[in-house]
Amino acid sequence: MIKFLLFYLLLISYSYGQNIDLYLSLIDEGKTEGVLENLPELISKYPNNPGVTYIKALMTEDGKTSIGIYNEIIKKYPDTIYAPYAAMKIGEYFYARGLYTQASKLLKNIPIKYPRFADIQRATNLMINSFNAIGEADSARYYGLIIKSMFPRVDLGDERQVEKNRPLAQVFDFNKKAPKSLGSYVIQVGAFSTKSNANRIKLQISQLGYDVSINDIESNGKILYAVRINRYKSKKQAELVGKDIKSKIGINYRVLYRPIGK
Questions:
Q1: 255 closest CA partner among 194, 203, 32, 245
Q2: Which of 52, 89, 228, 229 is found 20 to 30 A from 197 (Cα to Cα)?
């Protein structure tokens, strides 16, 4: 209760719309209750604020509705910092649902259209995976080289592009497994208010060959469903797995220290 009051007071201290980054960080940490409570008033006071609109999209559970809001951001606020993130969210949506043709068409343009986007590498990774998934290795190579010419530090993951029309199992390296020995570190890739969303993410990561579980956790008096990859002996080892998962399906992660039995 005390933690919730402190959280609420912190939100109030940053009057509406003045610190979007605070709300975004809270959402990223799964602390969404206070954000949801303040969202209607935020929207009422700042209906034309692209940051508020972006938060609205993030907090919208229905996928198709959220895509409509992200498209609104891209069309109405193309020059804001939120436009590339909105485009990336749409790309992730297509990719997560196996709509690789739509995903590849959108993702290939993000680095070119938004050269200042903070995560060009992730957009490139998902683009390459999308093209490979539909057997268009030549397109993956072509657009990859264009992006590489613009951003020399981008890693194209050449091993993924050597063979044409590679099977989907090879593209995603399904045979990779988590270590059998149990460690104290887990990788959390999200905490969801509905179990269906958690199960969807669990299925995606399970298809990569990892040991995934859904854990019930309490946050601000509500039960959330945390998706976790188990278990690693060192934080460094867990970080490597987290980076691998993020590069392949574009999901952010956190490494947590969770000893067995605690």
A1: 245
A2: 52
Asked if residues 90 and 71 have their Cβ atoms less than 8 Å apart, the reply is: yes
Which CATH architecture describes the domain 185-257? 2-Layer Sandwich (3.30)
Contact indicator for 251, 201 with CB cutoff of 8 Å: yes
Structure tokens at 62: 């229905």
Distance separating alpha carbons of residues 224 and 222, to the nearest angstrom: 6
Is 103 in contact with 95 (CB distance < 8 Å)?
yes
Its pTM surpasses 0.70: no
Going along the chain, which residue ranges are E strands?
A: 185-192, 212-219, 222-232, 254-257
Taking a C-beta distance cutoff of 8 angstroms, is the pair 117, 111 a contact? Answer: yes
The tens digit of pLDDT for each residue in 54-99 reads 999 999 888 889 999 999 999 999 999 999 999 999 999 998 888 8
